[in-house]
Design a protein that fits this description.
Blueprint (H helix, E strand, L loop, with lengths): L2 H17 L6 H8 L3 H7 L3 H17 L11 H15 L5 H14 L3 H25 L9 H21 L5 H17 L1
């Protein structure tokens, strides 16, 4: 992705996250990005295509680690990196806007459920691989099968962030960090 395309994508993402797909016009995107209609269509077929790429970009940046990013990394470093990713994006969108964004994605993107299923399976595979590597390196014990431990880490994070996000607790990351540290400690013993 070149700089111009990425700029349009990030600008569009910001608009979609804060205003919602239906409330963002092509004019809004073009005005905020500072590009012509022709430049937009050079990179994206339509507003809907741009939205789909925004969803994919958001998910890859915020919520789902990519497998290549974590080859041979310890579980402790992996946990710290995921917490850092959360911290980098924590204040850019409130939980209600995030819910709206994904609700719109489920309605606008015809294969969204399948796409999310694939993303979630890849996320679980990354976590499982990191945990298996940690077991093989002696970093943690194999008290819980790697796939189950991976599911626990993911579910803890997702559940905590949703619950605290709905109760307006601004520091869900601290709770996630504490819970992940507790689970990590249990796996080490």
């Amino acid at each position: 992705m070149n700089e111009s395309q990425e700029h349009i994508l990030k600008t569009s993402l910001d608009l979609f996250l804060h205003s919602g797909y239906a409330n963002v016009s092509m004019k809004d995107i073009l005005d905020k990005a500072g590009f012509s209609r022709g430049a937009f269509y050079h990179y994206f077929e339509s507003k809907e295509t741009c939205f789909k790429e925004c969803v994919q970009y958001y998910l890859s940046r915020v919520t789902h680690p990519e497998p290549a990013d974590y080859t041979g990394v310890s579980l402790k470093i992996f946990l710290e990196d995921n917490l850092r990713r959360m911290a980098e994006t924590a204040n850019e969108i409130n939980v209600w806007d995030r819910f709206r964004f994904f609700n719109e994605a489920s309605k606008i993107i015809s294969d969204f459920a399948a796409y999310m299923g694939q993303r979630n399976a890849r996320e679980l595979a990354v976590w499982t691989r990191v945990i298996e590597n940690a077991v093989n390196a002696g970093e943690i014990t194999e008290r819980i099968p790697a796939g189950e431990a991976a599911s626990l880490f993911i579910a803890q994070c997702d559940g905590i962030l949703v619950t605290l996000g709905m109760s307006a607790n601004a520091d869900g990351r601290a709770v996630v960090a504490r819970q992940w540290d507790n689970l990590y400690t249990l796996l080490k013993e």
